[in-house]
Structure to design on (77 residues):
C-alpha cells in the first residue's frame, strides 16, 4: 500500500487530502498516470513529488509502505 498526500487544488480535485492505493513497486511517472486515470487529476506534470519526505524525479521508485506527497507550485504576493 502507498499513502499519497495531496495539497491545494489537488486535494480539492480528489475531495480529500490523503488516499491510499494498493499497488506494488512503481515509479513516480506510473503513479501520476494512475492518479490521472483514476481521479481525473490534471496538471500533475507541474507538481513536485516527495517520497518519504525526499524530493523525487519521474523515474524514482516507489515501494509499498512509502508515503508520496504531491506538492503543487506555490505563488504568493
Amino acid at each position: 500500500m502507498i499513502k499519497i498526500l495531496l495539497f491545494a487544488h489537488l486535494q480539492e480535485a480528489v475531495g480529500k487530502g490523503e488516499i491510499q492505493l494498493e499497488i506494488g513497486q512503481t515509479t513516480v511517472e506510473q503513479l501520476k498516470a494512475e492518479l490521472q486515470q483514476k481521479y481525473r487529476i490534471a496538471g500533475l506534470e507541474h507538481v513536485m513529488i516527495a517520497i518519504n519526505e525526499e524530493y523525487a524525479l519521474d523515474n524514482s521508485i516507489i515501494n509499498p509502505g512509502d508515503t508520496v506527497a504531491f506538492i503543487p507550485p506555490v505563488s504568493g504576493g
Observations:
- The chain is about 25% helix and 30% strand.
- The chain has one domain: 2-71.
- The first strand starts at residue 2 and ends at 6.
